[in-house]
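[09:14] KT: can someone run the structure on this one? pasting the chain below
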Amino acid sequence: MKVCEKVQTKGTTSYNEVADELVAEFTNTTGHLPTDSAYDQKNIRRRVYDALNVLMAMNIISKEKKEIKWIGLPSNSVQECENLEMEKQRRIERIKQKTAQLQELLLQQIAFKHLIQRNRQIEQQSQTPPAVNSTIKLPFIIVNTSKKTVIDCSISSDK
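[09:31] RB: done, structure tokens below
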């Protein structure tokens, strides 16, 4: 676990750097006699090398030449799957909302085209300018509100 923590905190390191730090930590905390020290250092270095190989096999670290890089601990696949499912549902809901908005805009465009067509037909049939209030002049404003909304609208004399 110490090897993993060392590589994680450093991000990018080397085998010797990790081994040197762990040997230094071990000798500072245990206070072994100098005769045991050489054996302990070699043993620690071997175990660091073993731990790094295990971390590489688990794809937690990567190693290129002498450089060791931290990749990251594997996540809980069940939790990750649940997170992805939630994200998928959010995106599906957003797609539904956007589809509904697009549908509404398409209906509005069709209605506007029909209105223009209707105005042209009335003009062509009568061969005279249309009667007052028989057509809707463009541009115009459409306001969609609840029935309880009070709208105060005024138009200048030159429209």
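[09:33] KT: thanks! The beta strands are 12-14, 61-64, 67-70.
[09:34] RB: yep, looked fine to me
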